[in-house]
Amino acid sequence: MGLSSCSHSKQDYTFVVCGDNRVAPEDTANDPSTTNTYQLNRMFDEISKLNPEPKFLIFNGDLVMGYCDGDTTRFEHELKEWVKLYKASSLSKTKIQLVALPGNHETCEKIGSGKIAVEANEKIFVRVMKDYIMNNNGPHATGLIPGTDSLMTDQSRLSYSFDFGGDHFVILDSDPVARESRVPNHWLNKDLASARKDGARHIFAFVHKPAFESHFPSETAMEEFKSNRDSLWACMEKYNSDVLFCSHFHVWDTLQPHKGKTWQIVVGNAGAPMVKDWLPYYYGFTIVKVSDKVDITSMGRDCDKDHYTAPSPDKLTMIRAHLIID
């Protein structure tokens, strides 16, 4: 798919975003893809039939279980099995461009009591998912040089940006090596400043881990490194970014930290196991209709809380939440 400059004429279009489809560790034995296969296949099928046809499906990380104890062959196999499911789906036969970014289950390993990003996993993700990475204009490794993002590994295809329809899309890796739960804010500030200079109508950012805890208790996300999180949010608001789409929490939820400014929207309900006391409790995907306004619709279907990989009882995926950003 060709990428247009922000300075070109504005287009009306739609895209879809979702995240977190991997299963729990105890449910991986009989599925080499380590995905919630029913939910993933149903989602691919339903998105392929949307009218108008979306331009993108952006998958916000945690595609597979990962955490393979350094077994890179197994991790690569999981990703390839995920890609195989996609290629076998009706979605792959459409013009909808799949865009995939990594979550902690793709870049990290469980080491001691922590979840530590490893370079081998980053390289495998870039290699296997190369057809679903839209650009290579992100930051490179700098090491601990003042005034940089202190990146230990090349992030040019894990955090990057592209333009479409007069709008600016930013993909961010929230778990780079030695910078877990942090994003490259020095690079991001330059990127968003350039987008605004070029006349971007909307700015959309996509990252796995949320900036804010939202309305639900969670495992640690970006609040673990508050100064980096606050710098991210200051940058998003400085350049009037519309939305930060994230997942990691297995729910759909919205939060606007400061009235009239950037929204955080959690889209982590694509099929990963949910915490029983989190509501609303449904699986689905999010449709974003883009014009001068941004119209966001959460599509969902009920699921069995005790048997989350079982087929959903709903024959239709219905509108569950709606938000318009002027």
If you had to describe this structure to a student in words, what would you say it looks like?
The protein has helices at 37-48, 72-88, 104-107, 119-128, 185-197, 226-238, and strands spanning 13-18, 56-59, 97-100, 108-111, 114-117, 160-164, 167-172, 203-207, 243-246, 252-255, 263-267, 283-290, 294-301, 318-325. The protein is of the alpha/beta class. The chain has a single domain (13-325), classed as Metallo-dependent phosphatases (Purple Acid Phosphatase, chain A, domain 2). The strands form three sheets. Strands 3-2-1-12-13-14 form a six-stranded mixed β-sheet. Helix 6 links the parallel strand 8 and strand 9. The chain is globular, with a radius of gyration of 18 Å. The two termini are 28 Å apart.
Structural class: alpha/beta
CATH architecture: 4-Layer Sandwich
Arrangement of strands in the largest sheet: 3-2-1-12-13-14
Low-confidence stretches: none
Percent of residues in helices: 10-25%
Distance between the termini: 28 Å
Largest beta-sheet characterization:
6 strands, mixed
What is the strand tally?
Answer: 14
Q: How large, in whole angstroms, is the Cα Rg?
A: 18 Å
CA-based shape: globular
Average pLDDT value?
A: 93
Please report the first level of CATH classification, the CATH class: Alpha Beta
- How many structural units, i.e. domains? 1
Beta-strand portion reads: 15-25%
Query: What is the number of helical segments per DSSP (H or I, 4+ residues)?
Result: 6
CATH topology: Purple Acid Phosphatase, chain A, domain 2
| Secondary-structure element series | EHEHEHEEHEEHEHEEEEEE
